[in-house]
Design goal:
It is a single chain. The chain has 14 helices and no strands. It has about 350 residues and is mainly α. The protein has two domains: about 150 residues, no CATH class; about 170 residues, no CATH class. Helix 2 packs across helix 14, helix 3 crosses helix 10 and helix 9 runs antiparallel to helix 12.
């Protein structure tokens, strides 16, 4: 007895069998690659950051391979270097706060990393950062690194894999898209429309919001430290690196996020000036002019319109960034927005079509 067959001769049980086999393959891939999930999501984020740069180079006649190489060399490697140094200094800043359990924080953000080989106590971090700041040479850095060389080597390997993964995504994106359209989905299909919407959403969130947060954080840290150089005695901005990071993160709160933080800092500096010398009140005024007027106008007028799209509600983006790291660890800042985009675009593009069937 034969099953009722479709027009191409395949029986329904055989089709279901292939779908079950595909599901098993997906589960195998998930189990095999779950350790590298964070690095894969980081590579996807870097792809969306580098894609506009590579496409602009290609429009100037540069080959896909060379444009991918130049994008990584000129954009990604300096970006990762600055972000790495910024993270080290941020951890040192956190260690300066007595109530901060840096070791517990590292275990949450970097699960699976050999925490006992890393400098986590306040004294260890201070020694590490002091040496890094005063004499950042290989001879002085080698003894500090030797204690956790195994962890460093493993993470360096993961970073190398991420760079290679990003390189092939940037170089072969047109080939991959062409193969996907000709083999997996048709251009006129619902699946293609949904995946295109996801691509647009990830481009908006990754190249837009995430890059905006990182840029604001790094620039704010620089400005805070420069202001501290001219600050009156005893009236410096406290924990400048930490507050700079908060300035970037709080930017996802609509309307009053950064203004609220500036107000708290101005109030703190004004109270300090009142308690020490009223002539020092010029410093909180200068801080507000630099950050609340000049810096904020530059962000609103140039940085945010250039980097951030308006595809998603700001509140959704805020919760994605706040809950992502809390749930998944360090890579949650990339995975949280990814899950948000996939979900919101499904509700926006596909759910009405399913409901109307």
């Amino acid at each position: 007895m034969r099953w009722c067959v479709s027009s191409n001769g395949e029986g329904l049980p055989r089709t279901i069998g292939w779908w079950l086999f595909a599901l098993v393959l997906v589960l195998v891939l998930v189990v095999a690659l779950h350790t590298y999930l964070g690095w894969i999501v980081l590579g996807l984020f870097l792809y969306y950051v580098l894609r506009p740069v590579a496409r602009r180079l290609q429009r100037q006649g540069v080959s896909p391979g060379l444009s991918a190489f130049l994008s990584i060399g000129l954009t990604m490697l300096p970006f990762i270097t600055v972000l790495g140094v910024f993270t080290i200094l941020l951890l040192a800043e956190l260690a300066a706060i007595e109530a901060t359990d840096v070791e517990g924080l590292l275990q949450i953000l970097f699960p699976g990393v050999a925490i006992d080989t890393l400098p986590t106590s306040g004294d260890e971090l201070y020694a590490f950062v002091d040496v890094l700041r005063s004499d950042p040479t290989l001879a002085t850095l080698a003894p500090l690194v030797s204690g956790f060389v195994g962890t460093f080597t493993a993470q360096a390997f993961n970073a190398l894999i991420t760079i290679i993964f990003t390189f092939f995504l940037v170089r072969d994106e047109r080939r991959i898209a062409s193969w996907f359209r000709s083999t997996i989905v048709e251009r006129e299909s619902n699946a293609y429309e949904y995946l295109k919407a996801v691509d647009q959403g990830l481009s908006s969130v990754y190249f837009g919001y995430t890059l905006t947060i990182i840029v604001i954080s790094i620039v704010a840290v620089i400005i805070y430290n420069v202001l501290n150089l001219v600050a009156p005695p005893g009236l410096a901005i406290p924990h400048a690196i930490l507050l700079g990071s908060v300035t970037g993160l709080i930017s996802v709160i609509p309307l009053f996020g950064r203004s609220l933080l500036y107000g708290v800092i101005v109030l703190y500096l004004a109270i300090g000036a009142y308690q020490t010398n009223l002539a020092y009140l010029w410093f909180p005024i200068v801080f507000y002019v630099v950050m609340g007027i000049i810096f904020d106008n530059v962000i609103r007028t140039y940085v945010r319109p250039f980097l951030s799209g308006r595809l998603f509600h700001t509140g959704l983006v805020m919760f994605a960034y706040l809950l992502g790291p809390a749930i998944f660890g360090w890579y949650g800042i990339f995975l949280g927005p990814f899950i948000m985009v996939v979900t919101i675009q499904f509700l926006r593009v596909q759910l009405p079509k399913i409901h109307s069937v």
